[in-house]
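One such shown below:
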Amino acid sequence: MVLGGKDSNQQMTSHIGIVGAGIGGLCTAIALRKIGLEVSVYEQSASPDEQGAGIQLSPNASRILRALGVLDALEALSFKPRLVQFRSWKNARLIAQLPLGNTSIERHGAPYLHIHRQDLHNVLREKAMRAGAKINYAHQLVEISQNEQAVQLQFASGNIVHHDLVIACDGIKSTVRKQILNASAPMFTGHVAWRGLVKTANIPKGTVAPAATVWLGPHGHFVNYYVCSGDAVNYVAILENQDWNDESWAIPAQKSELLTAFGGWHKKVHLLIENSEACYKWGLFQHQPLETWTKSRVTLLGDACHAMLPYLAQGAAMAIEDAWVLSRMLEQQEKNPVLALPAYEKYRLARTKKMQLASAEQGDMFHLSDSRDVILRNFKLGFGSRYLPELALKKLDWIHAYDAIRGFH
């Protein structure tokens, strides 16, 4: 593909273009403004409203958010869980638990936070705009092309812009990925997820522990945790062997459908579903790790290049790590920024591939159904948390102790 000629809708620019104003795109914009680069962000949505509910920010992400200058604002809107707990789906028996809270801060130097996605998005957007990033809404990308000098973005409105480099942060259905790479189509896993939000005031006190609680059941699991400084509870429910295969996560679902799907699960699970304000569902797809994310002056970031199943709660964290690493690479390659893109890709490929594969494996562990496998899993989890807690925590250090900031000191 080659660049088209100028027309009345064309703008010539000389800075970096970011496609997508989600978490990855906004973090990238903030990080690039910190090193003095000019940034324009293009978002297909007409407004900054963010779909979704709760999100978990582990220390590997929160330490970067501190470096970006937004952690204090986020902590004021977040909930700090004391623990992560694993419970039996039917009788709520405690299988295992590990400390978070102060342990995360003491062990990793950064907090573990639960936050509403809209709160996170608002803080990032405001910071990006104050830093001087230009955010353009209602810009649906239809075509990307490039030559040796620039990248051209053409939008559904007919508007055309040019940039020295483009970073695609346009999510699991990335338009840029489809146009620049020959990536294989994702495979439906047969897993379906539902999500909902419950006001804490609408459920009996003590219903939800100050923890990330994972209810483990046959062919499925249910996660709940506080967000909005404890004023709301977010839940995500996942079951296998389902026939819903739409990857969009903004499709309304009936609570009665979810209650039926989770029939026989503990009464606290049902209580949360019954009291949720709304319920949404989406199909989970397995995206195979890509061999490359970059083509000349264009690269991918976050879900656009390494979308992963949600079982390790690391999708957003990986995008935040990407943003920081890419900004450091661009800072190092100030005189020839095109060289920063393959360097960023090389730096990040192994870690994100490992996380994609580990997330899928975690889902398999959560959803065991054979009684002997369940007994063995529960024994290992319980024995480790009770008698070898340091060893159990060390198994998570490759995720939570990862320090993208120190890597560039």
